[in-house]
């Protein structure tokens, strides 16, 4: 993802549907992943509301974690 997101500008679209069938989305006009040396840090900007609210913006700037490398601040 790091290499792909460095080559050109990408948007991130998150489609959601609840158990009653109601649909909403959150869209960000800019999405990128930082290099391994920075823990694959996520960057999101340009929120466009699709009814879901800006509920994941708090993870922008956070590092990715994997089963063998804990990079985030979640306990």
Automatic annotation (TrEMBL):
<protein>
    <submittedName>
        <fullName>Microfibrillar-associated protein 4</fullName>
    </submittedName>
</protein>
<dbReference type="GO" id="GO:0048251">
    <property type="term" value="P:elastic fiber assembly"/>
</dbReference>
<dbReference type="InterPro" id="IPR050373">
    <property type="entry name" value="Fibrinogen_C-term_domain"/>
</dbReference>
<feature type="domain" description="Fibrinogen C-terminal">
    <location>
        <begin position="1"/>
        <end position="75"/>
    </location>
</feature>
<dbReference type="GO" id="GO:0005615">
    <property type="term" value="C:extracellular space"/>
</dbReference>
<dbReference type="InterPro" id="IPR002181">
    <property type="entry name" value="Fibrinogen_a/b/g_C_dom"/>
</dbReference>
<dbReference type="InterPro" id="IPR014716">
    <property type="entry name" value="Fibrinogen_a/b/g_C_1"/>
</dbReference>
<dbReference type="Pfam" id="PF00147">
    <property type="entry name" value="Fibrinogen_C"/>
</dbReference>
<dbReference type="InterPro" id="IPR036056">
    <property type="entry name" value="Fibrinogen-like_C"/>
</dbReference>
């Amino acid at each position: 993802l790091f290499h792909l997101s460095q080559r050109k500008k990408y948007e991130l679209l998150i489609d959601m549907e609840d158990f009653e069938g109601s649909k909403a989305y959150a869209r960000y006009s800019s999405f990128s992943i930082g290099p391994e040396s920075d823990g694959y840090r996520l960057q999101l900007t340009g929120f466009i509301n699709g009814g879901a609210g800006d509920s994941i913006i708090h993870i922008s700037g956070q590092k990715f974690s994997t089963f063998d490398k804990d990079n985030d601040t979640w306990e």
